[in-house]
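Our collaborator T.R. sent over the components below with a one-line note: 'Predict the complex.' Nothing else. No constraints on interfaces, no templates requested, no preferences about which chain binds where. So this is a plain run: every listed entity goes in together, and whatever single assembly comes back becomes the starting point for the next discussion.
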Amino acid sequence: MDDTYRGDETLDRLLRRAGSPLGAARVRRLVRGVVAAPEPFEPDAWMALVAARPGAELAGQLAALRARLAAAADDGLDGPGNEAPARLEALLGELRRRRLHGFIVPRADEHQGEYVPRRAERLAWLTGFTGSAGTAVVLRDRAAVFVDGRYTLQARTEVDAALYEFPPPADGPPGQWIAAHLPPKARLAYDPWLHTPDQVAHLRAACEKAGARLVAAADNPVDAVWRNQPPPPIAPVVAQSTTFTGVTADEKRRRVAATLADEKVDAAVLTAPDSIAWLLNLRGGDVPFTPLALAFAVLNADATVDLFVDRRKLTKGVERHLDKEVTVRGPGAFGAALDRLGGARKTVRVDPAGTPAWVVDRLKKAGARLSRGPDPCALPKARKTPVELKGIRAAHRRDGASLSRFLAWLAATAPDGGVTEMAAAERLEGLRRQGKHFRGLSFPTISGAGANGAIVHYRVTEKTNRDLEPGSLYLVDSGAQYLDGTTDVTRTVAIGEPTDEMRDRFTRVLKGHIAIATARFPKGTTGSQLDTLARRALWEVGLDYDHGTGHGVGAYLCVHEGPQRVSKQPNRVALEPGMVVSNEPGYYKTGAYGIRIENLVTVTPAEAPEGAEKDLLGFETLTLAPIDLTVVEPSLVTGAERAWLDAYHARVREALTPLVDADTARWLETATRPLG
Amino acid sequence: MDDTYRGDETLDRLLRRAGSPLGAARVRRLVRGVVAAPEPFEPDAWMALVAARPGAELAGQLAALRARLAAAADDGLDGPGNEAPARLEALLGELRRRRLHGFIVPRADEHQGEYVPRRAERLAWLTGFTGSAGTAVVLRDRAAVFVDGRYTLQARTEVDAALYEFPPPADGPPGQWIAAHLPPKARLAYDPWLHTPDQVAHLRAACEKAGARLVAAADNPVDAVWRNQPPPPIAPVVAQSTTFTGVTADEKRRRVAATLADEKVDAAVLTAPDSIAWLLNLRGGDVPFTPLALAFAVLNADATVDLFVDRRKLTKGVERHLDKEVTVRGPGAFGAALDRLGGARKTVRVDPAGTPAWVVDRLKKAGARLSRGPDPCALPKARKTPVELKGIRAAHRRDGASLSRFLAWLAATAPDGGVTEMAAAERLEGLRRQGKHFRGLSFPTISGAGANGAIVHYRVTEKTNRDLEPGSLYLVDSGAQYLDGTTDVTRTVAIGEPTDEMRDRFTRVLKGHIAIATARFPKGTTGSQLDTLARRALWEVGLDYDHGTGHGVGAYLCVHEGPQRVSKQPNRVALEPGMVVSNEPGYYKTGAYGIRIENLVTVTPAEAPEGAEKDLLGFETLTLAPIDLTVVEPSLVTGAERAWLDAYHARVREALTPLVDADTARWLETATRPLG
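Returned assembly:
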């Protein structure tokens, strides 16, 4: 293949020869979008968007063009040196021009997704903070970065403290800080595409407290000063086979539409790309770690759908897959469609927790009746079908085999020293990559040795990379996307001999894990009701962990999905059979070590004894990988806990031994022995 | 004393002679209010509102007048026969006259109190339903009574099913039913004094779903057709000594006002009479079982208070007690005061969970800025002072002694048969009455034998009264108001020999009770997070109970108070030292028996072991009374549970033995023995 780009004329010629309807200029624009998407699992799959069969020469030129445009784009986030002062100055200049006193920069895109496209990494561009949740508030005379407990350490490392304050999480979300620091009559702006109406209401109340005004910015002031901001991403959209979903898109549309009709709702605006991916059995690659395409949709009560998506992303297969009840329109047609709903006085479902304020404002202005309520896809998406569960179990066997190969290697290698966090993460990814249906990681691997393990959302970098040292704990939280399921698993292993304190803490975390794994609870119980079971053994000795106990997980979709969760934060969604959640209590000793034991579990009916009056539910553990017995203190474990642990390990051994090499099998034999 | 009323002229003469400023006509009006208040603990205390020292003759005439007016008023709730059809017809006629399609009748007064004055018993007057929570929705062609799980049985007994439907609780609150049955364009009315803005929003959404309109009724249509509706109640208002409160009203006003100032709030409208009673160290008797005076107040950020209360209720002592920073105004001045707050563009705190929509609407219309947030007295009221806790502990010793005398008598008497639920409740009340500082019961005693025990909020009547039969369980949930504290305790005892199933269930309830009593949890934990601990042993065998695990309790105030609670319903209020909550898991087998074990507990700091990172809290059990060991199955009890039970019983024995008679002491000795 050529590795230099030979110019647009050559490209034009090759495009014509390949029968592509596109010319070089349009291909350049498309490639800029491709570059703005995350690195795809199949590097050249996007070329199908240019021509059905590009041929070697065209493919070579396309690759070369991509490389050239990628290099040109590369000053986005990774510019040389600390550009934060200049960027902040530029933003302040823009605000002055607009007579704004300040602007709010959330780490959010128009879809309120956890992973956002490069274009939406405004918070990172401005402040350097790369965590998955946070907000900057920039005022004329001071600025602050707000992050939650997970990210306090990371924010201090990444963000220039000379430019930004870090109000402690105890001070609550930005509202209180805004109320305290915004001068009376000042105008604080927000981008209505990046905030939900609930968030706007919170911000507005804060401004009112200060006697100031919250105003919607017509366009984002950061975009105005971000030179070379990436365009919206372009990654191929493909159909997800009913072999994996178990239910056709047609059936899903009908079922969800029926729930709308039941509630006398005419249409639902879908702004969550994973809802759209689930509903239409589509997958894409617009954001990292998650196979979804950024899009909006309107699901009508007659089961028809208007899908607003960049047509250039659609592969031929998808156009065949989408039946005639799904109308594809460009993203630019979305606003007019909302206006039409309003003009026809339709009752429109919007989810106040996820819909951009822009959408709600537009619908209101157009005259729509708003039905505020949950995204109608959220709950059916969370209840996995039997076919999905079959795939998820298969994915977990493959994933567990890869993880076990990794852990066996680690056990053999790490005690001698020289294994780094980065090398470990890379080895694990390499092993996973060999698994059938693998499509990439489901989130950045957390590979934390010693004190780094105590950073809950640690992400190893060249600078922080450390050796797995004897006498320390190593925490690895990782997961993958497979066509048949999404995994997320954490194991904490001792490198060499753990201390008594480590064993005590690990065992308490394990007791919490087992309490969730073995919980039996009546239908109607929420994850919030179960959360405490996971913490009790830690509470007893005055310890706790500062994160939720479990999050929902998609089926080859988002590794974090709702609406259910296991958390001390109130959640009113009952656990239902087929839902998948993580079970991940932990304990973190700052500067010393971190412990987390995470399995995914699915809600199942549980056998109820004679005399039972309630339908009981429980969990089936999906994740299959040994839990390090060398860090378990047997004297702290009850008989019932021991029984669970031994049975789990027997299951792990039985399921994984046939899938691994002989060395790993031998290691598995020991690693899954009954607790001594 | 005279027992006949000798006419207004005589009364006038006696009033003049006693130096009363009132004439007979005003006294008549006052006495009508007295009659509309619940039966007071001191029957003649109200006479102090007429004259400082009435003298025997005047007192006799006042008593005679009261008896006469009481007899005349007595057609209110207890009219002969079933008047429900006529009353419903009258209401429908009134609605037709007002061109309304329907009206909502909540069991609520203007203060959203649990106990309401007779005047506000509109739901009971209309439908016959006397439970403490419920709503009727009356439409032209159908009507329904909505009650929660506690009251489904009672509603079916009390309400005429020919007139009212009983939509099942699973159907949710009235909204869904309204949306389904209200015709398009119809006007459904509500009384804005009886609903909070949140409730109105819920009702409005339901009406909108139906394409209908929710409208505020200018005055309550039930009042228009309720002949002989009682006037607002009049019971003497007295000062509560700082001997019991520990903090002066002056200090409280200053502290709460400071929290308002901190939040840049100019004033708080207080509509909860218990908040006002707490804030101003006042007690009254306007509603049953709770020593409070119905009133409204505005607390200003400068710590001054405008108190809107019927002056006629104030005893001389109170006028001395209220210092010059508290201005007393008549209830009629309340609206104008809200207008003044609005006119001055004040920022006014209103609690959306308790403030009548009328108040919020009026403030808005007048131009006030609303600060929606919790009643600023709720949290400080919930955190009992050391002096309050000292009183509460003393009250519990007295209460426990009375309850133990009752239980000892029951143990000696009931197995022979012939003790009825009613007789038992009366005996228990009689014993409590002898206790120092006793001021009445804190709620109607639940005295449930056998199957009646399974009715969670059972209230014995002549019709339902049954014998405590051998081989059955007897549940008694009762409490009292003492000047130094409010109690609430439930014991379930076996009459004769319990069955194995009863012992299994009782022991599981006890395990839940002990799990709460022994819980240790980090500062910041909410009651919602603890609720599951109380249910786990029941869940294991497919059982549960359909009520919360714990409610807050006032200090000589409401037996149910917030803001904290222990419940599976999400509650975001952290438990704090000094808060008092009940610990009352249960199990109810419909048609067979009910079990509940309830102690009050207070939140205390807990000792944290070495290495603890969190401040730990736990509970101190306040209630002192034996738990029936004959219904405990020792094989189900863990060592730690047994240790708690034995230690609790030792404490009960030690505290109560000095306070009881010899027979009871002997019984206590056995009843508090270590679990065999």
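Summary for T.R.: Chain A touches chain B at residues 179, 208-209, 263-264, 369, 371, 501, 519-522, 525-526, 528-533, 536, 539-544, 568, 570-572, 608-609, 611-616 (CB under 8 Å).
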